[in-house]
Amino acid sequence: MIKSMTGYGRGEAVAAGKKFIFELKAVNHRYNEVVLRLPRSLSPLEDRIRRFIQARIARGRVDGFLGVEECGEKNATVKVDKALAAAYYNAMKELQETLGIGGEIQFQELVALPGVVTVEEPADDVEEWWPSIQNAVQEAVDNLVRMRMVEGEQLARDLLSRSERLFYLNQSIRERSPFVVEEYRERLVARLNDYMRDGIITPDRLAAEATIFAERSSITEENVRLESHLQQLKSCLTAGESVGRKLDFLIQEMNREINTIASKASDLEISRAVVEAKSELEKIREQVQNIE
To answer: TM segments (predicted)?
Structure first.
C-alpha cells in the first residue's frame, strides 16, 4: 500500500510528574529529512528520536516538536547554609561594633541574604524519562503513518484511474498507426501521378517509398514500452513499500515515449491523443510528487 508524504501525528505520555507531548508534521520532500525541536534538557535524545522516526518514514520532510508540561507536585529541595548564615551574622555584629550602631539583627534580614536559603530543583534524569518519551514518539509516528496511508489510498485510486486513461489512449494510437501508412500511400500515389506524364506508377517505386515512410513513422516500439511502463506503474501502486522514486523514473520514461510518438506520427488523430496523453501524464506526475 502506497503512502502520501503529507500528514500529522501526535502522541502523549506521562512520567515523573511530567507530561511529554510530541507532534509531527510531514510534507513533500525529495529526500528523507527530519528536523526536531526539543527542550535544551532533552537534547541528548535528539539522535535517538531521529533514528526512530527515520526507521518508519522513508521519504519527506518531517518536523517534530517535543514539549514538556508539569502535571504533578514538584519535589524541590530547600537547603539552608547554616555556616554562611553564621558568617553573615558575625560580620554584621562586627560591623555594628565598629560603627557603633545598636539594634537587633532581624531574622528576615538574615535569610534574605544571598546563598542562605536556596531551592534546588530535582536533576533532570533523561534516561528515566526516555521510555515515556519513546512511547509518545511511537504514538505520534503511528498516527502520522496512518494518515499518510489513508491519503495514499486516495492517491492510488486517482493514479490508477489516470493510468487506465493513458492505457486507452495508447491503444487508440496503436490502432490508428497502420492507417497513417495507408493514407500516406494514397497521398503518395496521387502526388506521383501529378508528376508523371504517362500517369503510370511503378509498383516497386511505390512500395519502396511506402516502406521508407513506414519505417520512419513506426511507433510500435514506443507503444509497447509505454504499455510496459503503465503496467509497472500499476504494480507499484499495489506494492507495500516506498515507491515514490521509482514512480518518478517511470513518469520520465513515459514522457519520453509520448514525445517520440508525437515527433514520429504526423497524423491529426494521433496528435490529439498525444496531447491528451501528455495532459494525463502531467497530472500523474504532480500526484506522484506526493507519494513516499
So the answer is: none
Q: Which residue shows C-alpha cell 530547600?
A: 78
Three cell numbers written together for 247: 514512480
62 and 136 together in one domain: yes
Distance CA 156, CA 291 (A): 9
Q: Which three cell numbers stand for residue 19?
A: 507530561
Output the CA angle 172-175-181, nearest 5 degrees.
125
Same domain, 60 and 110: no
Question: Mind listing the pLDDT tens digit for each residue in 176-228?
Answer: 887 876 776 666 666 666 656 555 556 666 566 656 655 566 788 889 999 99
Distance CA 78, CA 219 (A): 86
pLDDT digit string, tens, across residues 17-54 = 889 999 999 999 888 999 999 998 899 999 999 999 99
Tell me the C-alpha distance between 146 and 7, whole Å: 9
Residues 144, 166, single domain; the answer is no
Burial of 203 (0-12, 13-18, 19+ CB in 10 A): exposed
Task: Give me 125's grid cell.
Answer: 534524569
Q: Which of 37, 55, 58, 118 has its CA nearest to residue 292?
A: 58
Enter the DSSP assignment of 38.
-
Lookup result for grid cell 499518510: 148
Domain of residue 16: give its range: 7-73+126-148
Residues 278, 149: Cα–Cα separation, whole Å: 28
Q: Which residues contact 191 (CB under 8 A, 6 or more apart)?
A: none
How many domains is the chain partitioned into structurally?
3
| Beta pairing class for 77-80 and 117-120 | antiparallel
